[in-house]
Every structure is written in C-alpha cells, then in structure tokens.
Amino acid sequence: MQVILLRRTMGFVLTLIAVSVIVFAVMNVLPGDPAITILGIDSTEDARAALRAELGLDRPVWLRYLDWVWHAAQGDFGTSYFFRVPVTELITERLPLTLSLALAGMTVTVVVGITLGMIAAARHGTFGDWAIMLFSQMGIAVPAFWLSILLVLLFAVGLRWLPPGGFPGWDEPLLAARSLILPTTALALVQSAVLARVTRSSALEVMRLDFVRTARATGLSRWRVLRRHILPNALVPIVTIVGMQVAAVVTGTIVIENVFYLPGLGRLIFQSIANRDLFTVQALVVLFAAIVVTANFLVDIAYVLIDPRLKGRMT
C-alpha cells in the first residue's frame, strides 16, 4: 500500500506541474493584450506599458512562470487582472458553491445510476429493463445545457415550483437548497444514465458466474443475492466509471453555472477567459486538475479495498 501511495503521489505532483506548464504556455500565446482588455482600446500606449510593468507582463515568460509557481506553492496565485482582488480570495469565496453542486451531482449520479442499473439487471429481458435502458440512452444523447433549459421551462417557468436561476447565498439554507435542485438534476441525469448502463452490464456478467447460482440454490432471495453477492463483485468497473465521471461533473459545472447564473468557480473561469484574466484562469484550471487527479487517486485506493487481488498489479 505504501508503494501505491508513493507512486500515486508522484503522479499527482507531476500531473499538476504538466498542467501548469501547458496552461501557462497556452494563456500566454493567445492573441490579445490584457492591458487593452483592462484599460480599453482608447487607452494610451504609456498607460498600457505602465500596467504591463505593474502586472509583470514585460518580463520573460519563463521567469513569470517560475515566479507564479513559487508563489502558488505558498498559496498565493496572484491578483486578478479583472476583479483587482487576490485570486485566492475569489476562489475561497466561490469554491463552496461549486463543491456543493459537484458533490450533490455525484451523490445523485451514484445513487440513481447504481439503483437503476441493478434493477435493470434483476429484471433482465423484461419491460422494466427495456424502460431503464431507454431512459439511459436518452440521457446519454441529451446535452446537459439543453436539458437545463428544458428543466427551467418546465419547473420554473411553467409550474413555478423552483427558481429559474441565481443563488441567494448560504445565509438562507432552504432557499439555497431549492436553487440547487435544478442544476443538480441537470448535472446528474446524464451521468446517472451512463452509470446505469455500466452497472447493468457489470452485474449481468457476475450473474453468470457459478457462485451466484450456488447462492440462489441455497434459498436466498433475488434481492439479497444482488445486494450481498453480485453488487460487491461488480464494483470494480462501476468505481472506474465513477472516477471518470468526477471529471465530467467538475467540468460540467462550468456550463451548468452559466446556464443557471450561479456565482461559482465555473462561472468565474468563463468570465476570466473572456477577460483574459491570466492569473485567475491558471489557478482555476490547476485547481480543477487537482480535483480530478485526487478523485482518480481515491479510485485507485478503492480498487485495492474492493478487491485485494488487484494490489499486486498496481505496485
């Protein structure tokens, strides 16, 4: 286990370094001038030059990168060009909303996806199985942003049950929870459809094994066999997909937060890209990469906990 942790930690660090290099390089070769974006096209060249010097944009790219990495390692991601406040402050302010949305989306995805997948496997070949697979196919085919618009039209504009967008703040927990229902639903439905198909396929493979027939022959009920014998042995491919879906959910918040006008990190990175706010974009992309890599790291650990036989293959 120590070897696995060491290797995954080294991979984590190297991945973040690679991401930071790529993002920094891409943001600095894009056309446009941040000084013009901030001051406007009517600004004078002297004013632009003074701002570039203030922001450090007149120094070589490699020197700026090393300086940024050095300060980022200490928790200082610089000052936002556009908002004129420390990037760390922007992230700290908006991170709770994005994490809440992502965690809620993943929770709904896992619960709904695994439940529907196991029901479809148990009812294999019946109308229930066919209905669940139809739902999953439709869920995979529907883009999240289009589903978001449909949910707003139905539940906010038509039925007026839920707010169409915005976020009232954490001071009012009930209103905050209501404002996250539609975004969470839009974020989770597509991913739960994918997970349902994978769960069904994995469960059906396990059902064909001899020990399942033996368990049924001892008189155990179908649902008890599913819960105690089939699901634990079908978890490895399920956990693999869940790890991949963390990345989809995290990046999906960018679209969802803009559709529902939520002041989270997804909306912040969209605004920062539009305004060429280099420090903010770099910090957010590295943060999203860290979340995804951490999720994959936890998935690797979960493999060993679920099936100790995989321990030797991962070292």
UniProtKB/TrEMBL annotation:
Residue span(s) of domain ABC transmembrane type-1: 95-299
Keywords on record: Cell membrane, Membrane, Transmembrane, Transmembrane helix, Transport
Membrane association type: Multi-pass membrane protein
CDD domains registered for this protein in UniProt: TM_PBP2
GO cellular component, one term: plasma membrane
Transmembrane segments: 12-30, 99-122, 134-159, 179-198, 234-261, 281-306
A Pfam cross-reference name: BPD_transp_1
Any one GO molecular-function label of the UniProt entry: dipeptide transmembrane transporter activity
Domain of life: Bacteria
SUPFAM superfamilies in alphabetical order: MetI-like (SSF161098)
Compartment(s) of residence: Cell membrane
Family label: Belongs to the binding-protein-dependent transport system permease family.
Name assigned to this protein: ABC transporter permease
Native organism: Rhodalgimonas zhirmunskyi
